[in-house]
Design brief:
The chain is mainly alpha-helical and about 200 residues long. It contains seven helices and seven strands. The strands form three sheets. It has a three-stranded antiparallel β-sheet, with no helix packed on it. A two-stranded antiparallel ribbon has the order 1-2. Strand 5 and strand 6 form a beta hairpin. The longest helix is centred in the first third of the chain and has 22 residues. It starts with 14 loop residues before the first helix and ends in a 10-residue tail after the last strand. The relative contact order is 0.11.
Amino acid sequence: MSEPAPMMPPMPKPESEATPCHSAELLLHLARLVHGGSADCSLTAVQWTALRYFASANRFSRTPSAFSEFNATTRGTASQTVKSLIGLGLLEKRAHESDGRSFLIELTDAGRSKLEHDPLADLIACIRELPPARRAAFRDTLGELAEQLSRKRAAPVFGKCGDCGHCDTSKPDSTFCRCTQLMLSGQDMSTLCIDFAPGANKR
């Protein structure tokens, strides 16, 4: 009786299949490194994320519910994070300028000072050291990945007003948001918005 053929070792995955998995793991590893070696451990990773968010979100998006969408978490968890930062004196509530029944979340002077020690700064410095062409390609790739994953998860896509499809710059010396039906300021153009839409329909 002939002996059974020896088992063949599993074939390694082609590079085209292994690379995306490795790239995703590297992104997670970078996220862990940001806070893992931080000199300032007084805030949790999600508290730092909230502080950054409210520093860069526009006047339509500085609410706990918008932050919950941005951070892909529940509204209850987002509210607790915001409440903790208010308790630390880093955030504060302010009445909404056009809706007296609601409020916006703003950074305090202490919050702005805290962000001067943001653990994300080291990663930002590393990105700035990339050649301009690679830096632009990296930014565009990450933006595309964020958009695709948001669609798969039925989550909102966040982006800056200046890159948004709702942004109408067809009239000279003015910028109009077709979503909110409001005029945008120069400061709005570089801020994050919960109503962001990819710029295919941008005018």
